[in-house]
Amino acid sequence: MKLACSSRIAPGSTYREKVASLERFGFAGIEARLPEDEATPERVEEVEEALAHSSVRACSLIVPGPVYVAPLDSEDAKQRKLEKGKSALRIGARLGAPVFIAPEYRPQSPLPLFDPPRSLDARERELFFSFLRDIAECAEKVAAVALLEPINRYETHYYHRLEEAVAVCQQIGSPRVKVVADFFHMNIEEADIPASIARAAGYIGHVQLADSNRLLPGQGHTDFTAGFTALRQIGYDGYMALECRIPAQPERELPECVRYLRQCLGESLG
């Protein structure tokens, strides 16, 4: 398994500076964030040029923005999401990076504090599966991978646990649609993280790392060694990208985090 880091928290004002920083710290990959209004050919060329001068590879792509987070609640919303999603898949294919696809990513109202999160109604299911089938068709056409991320109940009402996202993948039936195992969201939603990872064998296409408090791994109470052991046991050998907050100095804390994660990886070997 290879360590990676989100471009959002990588030090540097340009992608070349960010990639150089991550290579110096010991990361093998960068999770590229290209906001919807910045996902231009020129910006993609900047990313490609940065990677061409480094051993760091693009491990995943997120194209966040108003369309990405908006609810999938109408045909018009579906078409807007499809346009952005297909564009992101073409960029991902160009970079060799799987692409995050989101039906919705926003605070839920009312918050499901005690009651179970609401399920999709019939119209929402129809729109969602129509959207995702078109995304899968595009991913197959351009040779990209679409990633579904189970997100906690406070930020979406679609799928919260790995098994729910796996069920969606099974219904779509495309090898180009995979699941993200995000340790922060799993800390909230999964009763047993290693067991959930084991049940998702064959479907995990990417991993994101954040501790229980959304800080760097090692600054909360998540048992990363147990999670890494489970990933090894299912044969996962891809990237694990930091997607979290850094409370102090990245130049100091990111190398410390790499050392901590390497220790957990070593312990996961038994």
Architecture overview:
This protein is an alpha/beta fold and 270 residues long. It has a single domain (2-267), classed as Alpha-Beta Barrel (TIM Barrel), CATH 3.20.20.150. The protein is 45% helix and 14% strand. The protein has 10 helices and 8 strands. It has helices spanning 15-25, 41-52, 66-69, 75-95, 122-142, 162-172, 183-189, 193-199, 224-233, 250-267, and strands at 2-6, 29-33, 57-62, 99-100, 146-148, 177-182, 204-209, 239-242. The chain has an 8-stranded parallel beta sheet. The longest helix has 21 residues, at 75-95. The radius of gyration is 18 Å and the shape is globular. It starts with a strand and ends with a helix. The mean pLDDT is 96.
What is this structure's SSE topology?
Elements: E1 2-6, H1 15-25, E2 29-33, H2 41-52, E3 57-62, H3 66-69, H4 75-95, E4 99-100, H5 122-142, E5 146-148, H6 162-172, E6 177-182, H7 183-189, H8 193-199, E7 204-209, H9 224-233, E8 239-242, H10 250-267
Parallel strand pairs: 1-2, 1-8, 2-3, 4-5, 5-6, 6-7, 7-8
Helix pairs in contact: 1-2, 4-5, 8-9, 9-10
Number of strands: 8
The side-by-side strand order for the widest beta sheet comes to: 3-2-1-8-7-6-5-4
Number of helices: 10
Q: Please tell me how large the radius of gyration is.
A: 18 Å
Percent range of helical residues: 40-55%
CATH topology: TIM Barrel
Coarse structural class: alpha/beta
Instruction: State the distance separating the first and last CA atoms.
Output: 15 Å
Largest sheet: 8 strands, parallel
- The CATH superfamily turns out to be Divalent-metal-dependent TIM barrel enzymes
